[in-house]
Amino acid sequence: MRRGRRGERMGVNGEINVVSLIDVMMLLMIIFMITAPMMQGGVDIDLPSAEVKPLEPKNGLVVTVDRTGQIFVDDTKLTYEEFAGSIKALSDRKGGGGVFVRAHKSVDYGTVIRLVAAMKARGITEVGLVAEPEENR
After folding, report:
1. Single pTM value for the model
2. Are residues 32 and 99 in the same domain?
3. With the CA atoms of 27, 33, 37 and 42 taken in that order, what torsion angle do they form, in degrees rounded to the nearest 10?
4. Same domain, 32 and 53
5. Does 54 lie in the same domain as 27?
6. Is 68 left (phi over 0), alpha (psi -120 to 50) or beta?
7. What is the pLDDT of residues 3-34, one digit of tens each?
8. Is the same domain home to 65 and 19?
9. Contacts (Cβ under 8 Å, ≥6 apart) of 52
10. Domain containing 30: what range?
């Protein structure tokens, strides 16, 4: 027990001061709100431009081919054999919203066709090719 100003006894204060905790929480929330758009994952590629409409956000699978010809499914790097063996299961697990193929503009046309043919051979019929709209360039 502590004594007050005039010698009277004061009880123990059992309350926690949460104002500082709320301040820290709000600061962290602001930091996450600012940095979240910058943390978008994915493989950095330069898409070819074409007369296309912007994509509607869907829950499809994204297959990316970078400038060196490496294949990525979402953010996972695969060889062509791994890709061909697992693309049907990956597409089904993603919800069957189709597959979007993103390829760097310097990638050989044969590489993209080989991927699309592998998907078609395994029964994936909804395959889209992603390009950058021309007005954004």
Report:
1. 0.61
2. no
3. 80
4. no
5. no
6. alpha
7. 556 666 777 777 878 888 899 999 999 998 88
8. no
9. 131, 132, 133
10. 2-38
